User: Fold this.
Amino acid sequence: MRASDQPRRLRAERFLCYEYKDMKLKSGAMLKIAKLGNPILRKVAAPIDPREIKSSEIQRLIDDMFEVMYDEPGIGLAAPQVSRSIQLVVMGCKGEGGFPETVLINPSIVYYGPEQVDNWEGCLSVDGLRGKVIRPSLVRVKGLDRKGKALDFEATELYAVCIQHELDHLIGKVFLDRMTDMSTLTQLDEFSQYWQKEPTNVI
Ligand code: ZN
Assistant:
């Protein structure tokens, strides 16, 4: 999930830096984000064998995904967005109204609260667009953390919205599929010009 479209230049510079410094250095800055139209975004992701969670490959991928997410910057990233069709998402949003850094493996939403909330959503795989999506404001989630430990917790507001957005990526959905009013689909400049002042969480 996208936080802002501004600092993309920074990431490009870092990419170049790593590219020329050491091609073998598999930094997270080299993970490329799959964009809308890439078939991997439409696949249902495979569960991860819990015995594999502590492997260096999975641990490295988690670290690299956090690095890419913060670089963009975004507040959530699902493994299919970096062309790995496995059930892994990372999330984190510092500051007021934010939520803790979270890794979810093989997650499922086991309860949706009755209240709905509408938010502007954007996506690191969908450049330059925002749209309003209505989702439940509370979810209960089960899954595994990066150590393979069982998780079972409730999330509300932005955290709940981000979880639903990222878990959608694991079943081949993007936020555009969840929009009920396509007339709210907005390009970024127009979003800043006309809509940013609305009292909604912008994500
Ligand atoms: Zn997304």
About this structure: Residues 8-195 form a domain with the Peptide Deformylase fold (CATH 3.90.45.10). The CA atoms of residues 81 and 115 lie 29 Å apart. The beta strands are 76-78, 88-93, 99-112, 116-123, 126-136, 138-144, 150-156, 186-187.
